[in-house]
User: Fold this.
Amino acid sequence: ESAVGLIIGLVCGILGGVIGFFWQGSWLIGIVVFVAMFIAIALGALLGVLVPLFFKKMKIDPAVASGSLIATTNDLVAINIYFLLFLK
Assistant:
């Protein structure tokens, strides 16, 4: 799942970066969109693997506990990545 997440992140990041470049005419926007999408998608896939494993070790039902936690964490991380990249 992590490898698929990396591949999907790479493809979506490239597509988003190219669209961002042609839409705004700036390589900086294209690079920021690429990096942010790649990191957000790859991290989401990694969290999707690690959080249920963690809950299983803690004797908590992974199906019940991890769904909303992964979605919320992924959203917060993605928004922070976008903001941090645009500020630099």
Remarks:
- The mean pLDDT is 86.
- The radius of gyration is 15 Å.
- Residues 54 and 60 are 9 Å apart (CA to CA).
